[in-house]
């Protein structure tokens, strides 16, 4: 079977739906110019087109050299250093502590979809508007209770 025919698992990968037309891609580039003005200096945006900033406590997960979107690789040093560039702090180490600070810990339990490289270099704002990707989560009420509930659910599953 041609690999192009293998359907993408819908819940885990952002499907290019509706497909980006050549015209929309041009408009997306224009919008990305304005998006960059805000997001590059503030967050070091890497233009993934599928922004998950709101679930990573506003630390761009795409700055991880392995571009992991769902937690660290397991190679984080005891001092919180990155496995690939030990002189840097692990991006997910930062995400954890920032999430704690901002009371957004429950969002670390959310599974972010695998990056669809078709959307690399496109505007996340446009992709939210076109409903290709989820809208940002601005407020997280009762974060502590939510985390306790999630931990209790995990414990129940293990029993
Ligand atoms: S669009 Fe992607 S690369 Fe840019 S800040 Fe959001 S998560 Fe990071």
Secondary structure: helix percent? 25-40%
**H/E series, N to C?**
HHHH
Oligomeric form? single chain
Extended strand count = 0
User: Strand portion, in percent?
Assistant: under 5%
Write out the distinct hetero groups bound to the structure: iron/sulfur cluster
In whole angstroms, how far apart are the ends? Answer: 42 Å
User: Which structural class do the helices and strands define?
Assistant: mainly alpha
Biggest sheet overview: none
Q: Please, how many helices?
A: 4
Mean pLDDT reading: 92
Net shape: globular
Low-pLDDT stretches are none
Radius of gyration: 17 Å
Number of separate structural domains: 1
In brief:
The chain is mainly α and about 160 residues long. It is built from four helices and no strands.
Structure description:
This protein is mainly α and 159 residues long. The chain has one domain. It is built from four helices and no strands. 21% of the residues are buried. The model has no long low-confidence stretch (mean pLDDT 92). The structure holds iron/sulfur cluster. Iron/sulfur cluster is lined by residues 39, 43, 45-48, 51-53, 60-62, 124.
What is the fold's blueprint, element by element?
Blueprint: H1 22-43, H2 91-101, H3 124-129, H4 143-158
The structure holds iron/sulfur cluster.
Question: Keywords, please?
Answer:
159 residues; globular; 0% strand; 4 helices; mainly alpha
């Amino acid at each position: 079977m041609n690999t192009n025919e293998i359907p993408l698992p819908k819940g885990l990968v952002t499907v290019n739906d509706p497909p980006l037309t050549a015209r929309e891609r041009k408009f997306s580039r224009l919008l990305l110019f304005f998006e960059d003005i805000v997001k590059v200096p503030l967050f070091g945006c890497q233009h993934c087109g599928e922004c998950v900033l709101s679930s990573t406590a506003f630390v761009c997960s795409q700055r991880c050299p392995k571009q992991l979107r769902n937690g660290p690789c397991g190679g984080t040093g005891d001092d919180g250093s990155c496995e690939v560039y030990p002189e840097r702090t692990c991006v997910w180490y930062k995400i954890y502590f920032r999430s704690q600070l901002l009371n957004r810990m429950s969002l670390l339990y959310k599974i972010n979809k695998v990056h669809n490289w078709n959307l690399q270099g496109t505007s996340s704002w446009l992709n939210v508007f076109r409903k290709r990707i989820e809208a940002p989560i601005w407020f997280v009420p009762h974060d502590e209770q939510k985390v306790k509930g999630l931990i209790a659910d995990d414990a129940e599953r293990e029993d």
